[in-house]
## 1
Amino acid sequence: MTEEIRFTLDGREVTAEAGETIWQAAKRAGVEIPHLCWLDAPGYRADGNCRACMVEVEGERTLAASCIRKPKDGMNVKTASERAAKARKMVFELLAADQPPQVRHPDPDSKFWKWAHELGVEGSRLPARERFTPDPSHAAIAVNLDACIQCNLCVRACREVQVNDVIGMALRGHEAKPVFDFDDPMGNSTCVACGECVQACPTGALYEKSLMDEQAQTRTVWPDKTVDSVCPYCGVGCQTKVSVKDNKIVQVDGREGPANENRLCVKGRFGFDYIRHPERLTTPLVRREDSPKRGDIQVDPRNPWEVFREATWEEALGRAAGGLRDIRDTHGGGALAGFGSAKGSNEEAYLFQKLVRQGFGTNNVDHCTRLCHASSVAALIEGIGSGGVTAPFTAVEDADCFIVIGARPEQNHPVAATYLKQAAKRGAKVIVIDPRGQELMRHASHPVRFKPGTDVALLNAMLHVIIEEKLYDEQYVQAHASGFEALKEKVAEFSPEAMAPVCGVEADYIREIARTYANAERAIIFWGMGISQHVHGTDNSRCLIALALTTGHVGRPGTGLHPLRGQNNVQGASDAGLIPMVFPDYQSVEDPDVRRRYEDAWGQPLDPNRGLTVVEIMDAIHEGEIRGMYILGENPAMSDPDQTHARAALAKLDHLVVQDIFLTETAWHADVVLPASAHAEKLGTYTNTNRQVQLGRPAVSPPGEARQDWELICEIARRIGLDWRYSGVPEVYEEMRALMPSLANIPWSRIEREGSVTYPADDEDEPGREILFGEGFPTKDGRGRIVPADLLPPDELPDADYPMVLTTGRLLEHWHTGAMTRRAGTLNDLEPEPVACMHPRDIERLGATAGESIRVETRRGAIDLTLRADRDVSAGMVFIPFCYGEAPANVLTNPQLDPFGKIPEFKFCAARVSRVPQAQAAE
Ligand SMILES: Nc1nc2c(c(=O)[nH]1)N[C@H]1C(S)=C(S)[C@@H](COP(=O)(O)OP(=O)(O)OC[C@H]3O[C@@H](n4cnc5c(=O)[nH]c(N)nc54)[C@H](O)[C@@H]3O)O[C@H]1N2
Ligand SMILES: Nc1nc2c(c(=O)[nH]1)N[C@H]1C(S)=C(S)[C@@H](COP(=O)(O)OP(=O)(O)OC[C@H]3O[C@@H](n4cnc5c(=O)[nH]c(N)nc54)[C@H](O)[C@@H]3O)O[C@H]1N2
Ligand SMILES: [Mo]
């Protein structure tokens, strides 16, 4: 039990909770003691080095640093005694003497100056010593160590909070200074620009360039307002504070959300300026009569006038809706399809699928989840009756073991990765399974590099060990699982010895990782695209589910299944029904009872058949089945596999409406382009990977004539004959909620009040349930179903013509198709050009050198990129990120689908690599 401590603070009786410091107890009692090296935020340890928080403890000869000193029963503490106040003032005077003068200070409004002013210290009359040359080498962060007070917060921020281990303290005493790696300029160091150090620094020695003068030495920008919102990038769902000056975002800081506790990554913190890029769409566009569509067209977004002309909203909306209506009326709803967006809000997703189902009269509505975790969700729904995560990633705090397989969280879910790395430091066993090396393997007790595409071999071998050595949880299996016997039979043929040559992991090591996971008290599995984006993606996920169900590692704190969801709202967009087989909350369109409920709600008969999926829709266009599309906030001309095929399909459409914030490669093929609002310009809810429904608030207004996405969906709806009237986003949310049991106790007002609510919640005043399925599963028999999986090879194996394996994925700084991040100044500065990564040995074998231009070819096409040496890429493989329009990876990738999740094999196809002759490369 926690015991309270009673002590006297400035003559008052106060209590401290066990473990609390004097500083913390004082704060709760309403007394804020000056402080610099102490940061009152989760994850920060007190260091007690700056002496700014000294207090007097009766009976003690020396003053005590209140940030580390814990009170004792009966202690008498004086924060305001003359001695303490004088000592504190002295600390500030000494520090101020060495600060640059306020008129040219990196941040005259910093915490340091705020306290200094409060204590009556106005800076030193002496000129500060010139000690350090400024370091402006980083794209986003200015380093002005003249303002550094050696408080060490940046080191703790970097090493202990974000666990990036870049910043250290060099030298001692007065000479001490923070250094990046081996005292490299920040811009050349391994810094990942999460900016945690900037947020923590009390003086502005580390500061955002976006708030400073050209030389990056003096602050010149002060925001007009700060808005609480949520990050637009990944599924982690970091809460943000967005600062705005003259309707322009000038700074983003982390806020204390449940998924980030003030932390951010480089994209969330520094990737905000894309919304003011000159290429932003600001007026509706209509295709010119004299500009025929062709799949191989290239449009310069800065000069689209050969292809498009400006139109009024009336004309654009009339044409957009008219074309869709005509196709529906002539060819039936089945000739239409829609792609909604996982970048948009829940309300937009709900309205979009309603428009397609009610207005177009078809279930042909899908979104990027199809290219993402569709196979994971198919396996989860089959296995445990629910597609969401069973536990938030923060549950890793309670785990003594976790597996990360086919995911790269440090790069793709960086803030989630901070929790994983902290758990590793705490001593949790970490099993990272990936063909490609990654930073997280440095923190792993069990790094496992294996052959790509052989997950089923490895995972079945682990299951073999678990069953053979009786490491499974017999009681759990008896009470909560079905299919165990069939699994036992299946994996009998998958001994580690038999699978070792298949997956390239030694039999003993397979046994060891199987034992480590199974014998853990609490273990959790995280997975990503390396599992899902295969023709056997559903089988891969089935094996993971089998691991959890046999060992009982689900339903308790520190256990669970967590597919790391990708887009900021992919969980929400899926929940809201942007899926061709199901209405909101995964209710089958083929179930007559379900359908009747929706027909009653929407007042008309609905299509009883499942619709087509993303890649199937592209095929159906080629077959002449689908003639018109509405695409909102997706860029399939870049993100779909076999791009030439996809672009030819888009060009073949009789009518294409694209609603986006940029003239994307997809929009090049449009008849009408509707300029929409970006994330920072709108109100809405977003559901992150942890099932936390959070509120995004508008910080700035849309540029030019750009309009709100949800309003545009309604405009189209009305023009195709629906009587839609919504007073605003909250009304849409409430309509959606009435149809979604998962949101039952989460009214709009609650999200507004609490900022983040986990679903499901049992009551309006009860917190949502983080850990699910302690008492069985929402399946027909209440049991989790184990589905054994067989070993299938990737669809296209290397051969004599195409001897390498091509794998694709992401970079930390870029987002998917680059639409946003290639237009974000800092991010594009950090990763400016298309790269292909290969192992140095393969580069040597090719007779090439890193930095030169190479050509990568597959049976579908060829692209040229700059060669980068990367020891993490296995020999025989080439890795390409898919964010570069000038060298689009998906010209190369294989569109072959997983039969259950209908996801293409982005992670594996046969390729060949050659050098590009110099003359050609220069062209
Ligand atoms: N910076 C950045 N972050 C992002 C995104 C982004 O575009 N940029 N996108 C977001 C989205 S939508 C998503 S879905 C997530 C994706 O996040 P992740 O799931 O981490 O995605 P990837 O980097 O594509 O692939 C993950 C890993 O799969 C491995 N892999 C490849 N083949 C295999 C295999 O056969 N077996 C196994 N076990 N592993 C394999 C790769 O080596 C890679 O390390 O990221 C989200 N976050
Ligand atoms: N080769 C390869 N291909 C892949 C993958 C891979 O690993 N390898 N991964 C796949 C995965 S996991 C995913 S999730 C998909 C992602 O594929 P997409 O979803 O197509 O990719 P994004 O670039 O995120 O596209 C989002 C679009 O929305 C626009 N947008 C952003 N905000 C807003 C807004 O508020 N309103 C509107 N109207 N538009 C907005 C952007 O400008 C952009 O055009 O890619 C898939 N493709
Ligand atoms: Mo994704």
Note: The two ends are 73 Å apart (CA to CA).
## 2
Amino acid sequence: MWMIKLVSLVLLASSASAATAASADKVLSNHATLLADNSANLAFSLYQNMAKEKGIDNIIISPVVVASSLGLVALGGKASTASQVKTILNAAKVKDEQLHSGLAELLTEVSDQKTRNVTWKISNRLYGPSSVNFVDDFVKSSKKHYNCDHSKINFRDKKSALNSINEWAAKSTDGKLPEITKDVEKTDGAMIVNAMFFKPHWDEQFHHQMVDNRGFMVSRGFTVSVEMMHRTGMCGFYEDKTNKLNILSMPLAHKKSSMVFLLPYHVEPLERLEKLLTKKQLNTWMGQLKETAVAMSLPKVSLEVSHDLQKHLSELGLTEAVDKAKADLSNISGKKDLYLSSVFHASAVEWGTDGNAIDNSIFGTDKLKNPKLFYADHPFIFLVKDQKTNSILFIGRMVRPKGEKMRDEL
Ligand SMILES: *[C@@H]1O[C@H](CO)[C@@H](O)[C@H](O)[C@H]1NC(C)=O
Ligand SMILES: *[C@@H]1O[C@H](CO)[C@@H](O)[C@H](O)[C@H]1NC(C)=O
């Protein structure tokens, strides 16, 4: 009797822990998997569209968050205003409910602090003009699926309207994004605002003492002073000799995603590289990575970048929602009185030396002999690629880090 009880207790305990392990590594649903993959296509088309624009230097976008904002438009839209979103997400056949739950599932998975050891704070808000009435159903569903809150804003006093948007963004990122916009062009529509703070934790840390000041060459004649961190270790590495660039892939904590750097051999405008950048090419490069000893030097980064994506999304096919005469966003307000006037997408991204402890047993062994050099002291493209879902959490380019101009060389 006594023995039997003990056995069943042990069995109970082991099945309980198996259940926790399974939930910690949940399998994505089919529609979330499809949307993850499609959001990676969106990453490249949106990046390419933005890179064409003159006058912007650094770019940071989170394609999975952009996909979510598109989902919000689909939730508020009717007829072709809504169906255009599905076309952009290549999800015409996905049912509405699955679109919203799938996008929510994807974002919850990739931003989970516990299973990924990442700091990724995402806040979303929909602003409408003071005349608008938000429908209860929409308020509830948009909160549930997209963690989006709502606010009316009176642009008759533009300065205080701008202040309140910027204050909200600062507050929701613990001060990391002090200002997301200096101006709003069109003040009569609905505005989606994403405010994010992202800080990855490396799978292998940099020693905090291995940091010094170096020059970062923005262009041949212009160098700024930045903090660079250095480390030698094993990493995914590939040298593409034909295209004259080096690719480095560094896993983030828990190895569920990695940060991929695309660095041309020498300082040059990034256009040449950007022309090559497609999902297919990235997959080819990823397939060529080999575990290699690399002596890497990366700038410590703290960037705040804000984009209005409205125009870019319309160029990718979201033509109705942004058009005052055609937009039907009546699921938001019960009337055909709204159009999408801006999509502010703002991120503060920081990376430094923090990460998991290094496996010291490798030092002094042959493995680290003759490391490849990866010295990121000039403009590069970076991506945070997710292994588990195949989505792209961030894509961007670092062209102009913060830092004092250094003395011109003769
Ligand atoms: C990541 O893990 C480290 C070490 O366990 C911990 O100190 C840190 O707070 C974690 N960060 C996040 C964002 O979970
Ligand atoms: C949007 O409107 C359509 C048609 O009136 C309705 O069937 C649908 O349930 C609405 N969606 C939401 C999220 O309220």
Note: The first helix runs from residue 2 to 24.
## 3
Amino acid sequence: MSFNTFGHLFRVTTFGESHGVAVGCVVDGCPPRIPLDRNDIQPYLDKRRPGQSRFTTQRREPDEVRILSGVLEDDSTGAQVTTGTPITLVIDNVDQRSKDYSDIKNLYRPGHADFTYDVKYGLRDYRGGGRASARETAARVAAGAIARKVLPGMTVRGALVQMGPHKIDRAQWDWDEVERNAFFAPDAQAAGFFADYLDGVRKAGSSIGAVIEVVAEGVPAGLGAPVYGKLDADLAAGLMGINAVKGVEIGDGFAVAALSGEENGDEIRMGNDGRPRFLSNHAGGILGGISTGQPIVARFVVKPTSSILTPRRTVDRYGRDSEIVTKGRHDPCVGIRAVPIGEAMVACVLADHYLRQRGQIGDAPAWPFAPPAG
Ligand SMILES: Cc1cc2nc3c(=O)[nH]c(=O)nc-3n(C[C@H](O)[C@H](O)[C@H](O)COP(=O)(O)O)c2cc1C
């Protein structure tokens, strides 16, 4: 009844609070003999790390990962590899400032998890939000780095495609640009605009929402299962499980409501490589809950940060009307740092389904099938 675990065969359990000693995860089910050392994980944590620009929280966390278990030096290669036993990753919290939260100890921030935690558990870790803090997501990002190594040839990339009402120009999409700006935006011009826009939001003591798109390439056809194990359902659950995420779309998502059957169904021809070639990808790479072999495309929307400087009406835990202003260090647009987190969740779900496919089906007969004789 504790719900800190997700995945079936690639199984991730995260632990830790924002202002505790550390956060981390146990990854169980990772196959043995996969090369893995902390350098495979650290770059992804560095991408999520706070305090890298004026557009994210100024909490200073080095987010250095330690691997406590599940790896061994391989005699033949000298490389560190997974053993098949649980891999435990730990990331110390070093820059907690619990006193920043003393003013809101007994008050509920509108939009945050303060009220619901209190009403459910009868107490809450007010220091930084406890498990409701984005610190927990560092552990998912670390697990995602391992997941990427489980599915050979898979690439998972994410980008911020909308901030507030402002969308990027998709014609300008450049994946290299994502690494060059503070917003993980794939459109250089939009990134320049976002800088001025978010400066205004930040200086006003406010916050704003965003949309993130994650694309997974190199995912084989056949992952996922009908009905209760649909790949799209598991991706949606994984992405919705990220703090502050309020909606998920696969492929064209909600926009399919305005499409006709002709516009929506992705037509198929045979490619020169003997594999099917879809002429479009409205489905986002998933049909019937099963991957088509096309890129998997998921989008998720992240709400504006609840901790803002604007005075807000609320109540305290003793049932008295009150007002709250949240000071301290907060992200003005949570969506920015959600990009590597979304990538990690997609990678974990796909690694899990890859292992499930191997477990149930193994090697399916090669497609296209031989036509019946005669
Ligand atoms: C990367 C990231 C950073 C976040 N930073 C903050 C923050 O600085 N201040 C805040 O109030 N909420 C922040 N949040 C959002 C809260 O964690 C989240 O709103 C809270 O857990 C309530 O859950 P819900 O939004 O899913 O309802 C952040 C979330 C993410 C994913």
Note: The pocket of flavin mononucleotide is lined by residues 57, 112-113, 129, 132-134, 137, 242-244, 303, 305-307, 330-331, 334, 337-338, 341 (CB under 6 Å).
